[in-house]
Amino acid sequence: MTLSGLSWEAQLALFAPYCGGLEMESSLREALVLLPSGEHVGERTLVGAPAHRFSLRWDPVQAPLELTRCVLQFENHPEVDYRFECPAHHLLNWLMEGPLQGRGTDLPDSFWQWLLIKRLADERPL
After folding, report:
1. Whose CB has fewer CB within 10 Å in the chain, the N or C terminal residue?
2. Do residues 93 and 19 make contact, with C-beta atoms less than 8 angstroms apart?
């Protein structure tokens, strides 16, 4: 499945400058296949504790700088969800760095750090 019927070459040309360039073409292609699905189900591994199963869903996007609305939910805590927006290229990079780089189904530490920092910033009073 491709974005709005764009060819693979067009998608690569559009996203590559934001996602590691053509040296990362293989991972970028794999992430672009995941993008239209709108969901990644994974497991966050923790040291000395059980893993947390999660689901990350996002709205469809067409361009790397387009904001996508995302929802992160944890299987064992359905009452807690994280809602945020990020540029599509951030999402692609997290998919490329995590599950597509041999991290199982987990997202990279850079995602979790970004999420916590964003959450703290959003909660800070003006």
Report:
1. C
2. yes
Structure-token pair, residue 110 = 């850079």
User: What are φ and ψ of residue 103, in 5° steps?
Assistant: -95, 25
What count of residues does the chain have?
126
Nearest to residue 18, comparing CAs of 105, 106, 96?
96
Q: Is the pLDDT of residue 54 over 60?
A: yes
Tokens 């909660």 belong to which residue?
123
State the CB neighbour count (10 A cutoff) for residue 1: 9
Three state DSSP letters for 36-93: HHCEEEEEEEECCEEEEEEEEEECCCCCCCCEEEEEEEECCEEEEEEEEEEEHHHHHH
Output b/e per residue, 5-26; b: 16+ Cβ within 10 A: eeeeeebbebbbebbbeeebee
pLDDT at position 88: 95
CA dihedral 26, 109, 92, 75 (to 10 degrees): 110
